[in-house]
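Thread: "does anyone have the structure for this chain?"

Original post by V.I.:
We have the sequence but no experimental structure in hand. Need at least a predicted one for the grant figures.
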Amino acid sequence: MADKTEKQDMAWRAIGGLLGLATAWGAKKVIGFAWEKTTGKKPPVDNESLEISLGEAIGYAVVMGVGMQVTQIVVARTARKRYNAWKAVKDAAREVTS
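Reply from O.Q.:
Generated one for you, tokens below.
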């Protein structure tokens, strides 16, 4: 039984890792698009560049940081709920057939 639990945990880790990558990529694109539409400027690529004002660099860092973290929390919690529901249905079906 421990082997089966370990395999499920490894499956969840793999799924979580892939979701994390996809979420980070998607969130960066969406936040960058929103930044461009809101400010009329492309998102700063190099926040250390002196061509970008300090306010703009800090503003973008805050927006990106908060946006990425919120997105990852929402996606991870939703995925975990779906995975647990799927696992419960699978376990219930196994009990019925046993």
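V.I.: this helps a lot. The radius of gyration is 20 Å.
O.Q.: and Residues 5 and 11 are 10 Å apart (CA to CA).
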